[in-house]
Amino acid sequence: MMMLQHGSTQLLCLTASSGVPLFTRGASKQLPFSVIGSLNGVHMFGGGHGVVLSSCETEGGGKVVWRVFQDSMMLIVVSGGGQDGAGDSKEDEVRLQRLLENVWSCMVLVLGQDELTNVRNVERLKRDLRSCFSLIDQLLEDRQEGILGNLTHCADSLLPPNPTLLQEAVDGFAQASDSEFGCLIVHGRIAAATEKWWRLAPPEVVLLSALIRSLSASGSASCDYPVFLPQGSPTVAHRLLRFQLLPGADVCVLCGPTPSLHSAESGMVGRFWTPLVETLRDCLAVGEHSLPRSVSLRPDVLALLLINRETRRSVSCVRTSTNRPLGDPPLPSKARCWEILKLFYIFSTTRYFNQEETLCVSPEERAQRANTDDFVLGFSHQPLQCYLVTEECKSYGLQTPQHQLFLLAPLSVPTFALRTVATQTLSDIVGATGF
Amino acid sequence: MAHVSPSSGSIIVADWHRCKDSKEYFSKILHKKRRKNFGLLESPVMPPHVAVDTVHYKIFLSGKSGVGKTALAARLAGLNIPNMHYETTGIETTVVYWPVKLRENGRVLFFRLQLWDCGENALRRFDHLLPACKEQVDAVLFLFSFTDRTSFDDLSNQIAKWTGAPVVKLVVGTKFDLFMHCDVAERDVRNFQETWSVPVLRVGGEVSDGLGDVASLLNCLAEHLWASGLCISQTPFTAGDRDCTLILT
Ligand SMILES: Nc1nc2c(ncn2[C@@H]2O[C@H](COP(=O)(O)OP(=O)(O)OP(=O)(O)O)[C@@H](O)[C@H]2O)c(=O)[nH]1
Ligand SMILES: [Mg+2]
Q1: For residue range A185-198, what is the model confidence (pLDDT) as tens digits?
Q2: Is the pLDDT higher at A287 or at B70?
């Protein structure tokens, strides 16, 4: 059965206890009510027999993933599968699992856990859930190139040319706002943050980045948004204050009842940031590359994703114009490189490398949902490197205790040279930036 | 398109953006024929020999969910207007710079209008948001939608809540372009305007040239703010000089 068009994804939300539909998002053509009912029914049937149905595949290459959160809400995602030949069903499943986790976190972020778990009035809940649609649709579309945090749960970062000045300003600004949590986001990526910001749970850091990105994209000058932190403060809202310093550069703090948006803006923004206008412009000039010019990458690197496993941060870039010698096969487009990078990340982390589990799931649940192949569990050791050659490019993964590097190279690079390219790239970046 | 109440144009030059002598000022708020988006650290910069004061105002957008507050803020600032209704889940402010020429003495001023937009449902869920919007506010725009009768009928209630407050009050009717679904008759609007003696402006439709669509609304707002008397003139903090001066008109 093919339930949805290829490439489209639909999200369903129902109450877990009684299966009352709360909302659906995504896909232009909605699934008929009877299908929604059956999807819920089959999960309940399993539940009645002590079986947790977590995913299934349709003959047409579609995929369904179920997940119940806090015993109160059921999220189901249905995917038409096969986005332009992207990945097999395992890659799809990981992507969809992540999507459900992220959607739930969004709901908690906006509404708080109490409202979602103690449902007194379903109609009212339905109405309130509408306030989450902006973030949920953004997750479903997943259109923003170069942002991988939703998948990796590592914070997309940008390494500024002048980190010390920015760090001091963020620290000072946060302190003056009676807050320990502050960060500077440039082109949607964290350029500097207070120590406490980095101590938020990694999925929260990623979620806040996503919220700030969407606020920043609207072009508004400042915001005062109530937010719940899914892990740190699921029942008490904090205030997220955001100030657009320059278009594309936003400073944010998480704070309590004070200061007011007005007083923070008129009293502090200019004081801390006016002296740094040029530094901020330099930082904006780094652009989507997330790496300063002091890092010179080898010409045979097409794209890369570098994760610091300890700090749960990542930098990534796709290079636009690598000169291609005549006669070489065409290089994948920029958008395609981002897609391949994501797929290769999932490929490597499900088959060979550890995917650091950062989510609060119970151990039993984790075992049920284990994405890691039995194949890997059979290993007596941890693979350190892996590679994959496809018709489009060559991919290489490298793992050290501190880092994971995922790198794409053109087909013209000999396979035996990939390891050298990767190790050298890793040391180039770490050497120049201390990342 | 915005249509202004007839009384306007007595204090500031109406349609000044069409005059030649306004070019050098309006060019500072444009970039590649579109409106320029200013970060908080930026402001329109005139050459040193052209001294222009900037006057700062805080404007609150009031109106029920879906009436078009976020869309209006985007329209006035020349930002992309959302075509879907996504609830605003907190306060968002948008800064609009607008050059104005005073009729009386030909003096030019930059109005810095900071529009405070807070989602109606967020206002209801969180008590601290409304006081934040009201703090030191200079004007309130009461929005209703031409396609939603109840939003129009509720105006008097909304305005009554602000009786006695020393703020400029204007009413803006949104979705004027959706005349097929119009639910508020012209006659009702005229009656309302007479009863409350509050100007009613109309907006809606595609944004075409960036300035003409918003000029009448922004000029009307600027005029009422200026006429209201006291304002705080503040050179923007990018200039490095943050002394405040009071100007009495
Ligand atoms: N045709 C037309 N549509 C409009 C106009 N103004 C707003 N809309 C649409 O109306 C919907 C709601 O507008 P918003 O500006 O998001 O509503 P809001 O008042 O901010 O609502 P809350 O944030 O929930 O309080 C959006 O889909 C807009 O595109 C208009 O003048 N004409
Ligand atoms: Mg809104």
Answers
A1: 999 999 999 999 99
A2: B70
Interface predicted TM-score (ipTM) of this complex, two decimals: 0.90
Q: Which residues are CB-contacts of B209 (< 8 A; sequence separation ≥ 6)? A: none
pLDDT of residue A360: 38
Counting one residue from chain A and one from chain B, the pairs whose CB atoms sit within 8 A come to 107
Domain ranges, ordered by start, for chain B = 16-140+208-247
- Ligand 1 atom closest to Cα of residue B67: 19
Range picked from A287-301, B1-15, B51-65 for highest mean pLDDT: B51-65
pLDDT, one tens digit per residue, over A414-431 is: 999 999 999 999 999 999
| Cross-chain CB nearest to B41 (options A219, A226, A245) | A245
* Spans of all domains in chain A: 9-143, 160-289, 303-433
Tell me which fold the domain A160-289 belongs to.
Answer: Beta-Lactamase (3.30.450)
Distance A232 CA to ligand 1 centre (A): 34
Between CA B240 and CA A162 the distance in angstroms is 23
Residue A246's SS3 state is strand
Mean pLDDT of A168-187: 97
User: At which residue do the structure tokens 């109490």 appear?
Assistant: A114
Counting ligands in written order, the one closest to the CA of B203 is 1
- Answer yes or no: CATH 3.30.1490 is held by domain A303-433: no
Architecture category of domain A9-143 in CATH: 2-Layer Sandwich (3.30)
CA nearest ligand 1 atom 26, residue: B85
Q: What does pLDDT average to over chain A? A: 89
CA pair distance B195, B176, nearest whole angstrom: 22
CATH number for region B16-140+208-247: 3.40.50
Nearest chain B residue (CA) to A222: B93
Q: Are B118 and B129 in contact (CB under 8 A)?
A: yes
Q: Spell out which chain A residues touch chain B, with contact meaning CB-CB distance below 8 angstroms.
A: 110, 127-128, 130-131, 133-134, 137, 215, 218-226, 237, 239-240, 243-247, 249, 257, 260-262, 265, 269-271, 273-274, 277, 280
CB contact B124 to A (< 8 Å): no
- Where b means 16+ CB within 10 Å and e means fewer, A185-207 reads bbbbbbbbbbeebbebbbbbbbb
- b/e code A102-112 from CB counts within 10 Å (16+ = b): bbbbbbbbbbb
Tens-place pLDDT, residues B191-233:
999 998 899 999 988 776 678 889 999 999 999 999 987 555 4
Q: Which residue of B has its CA nearest to A260?
A: B132
Task: Tell me what pLDDT residue A378 has.
Answer: 63
Who surrounds ion ligand 2 at CB < 5 A? B 69-70, 88, 119
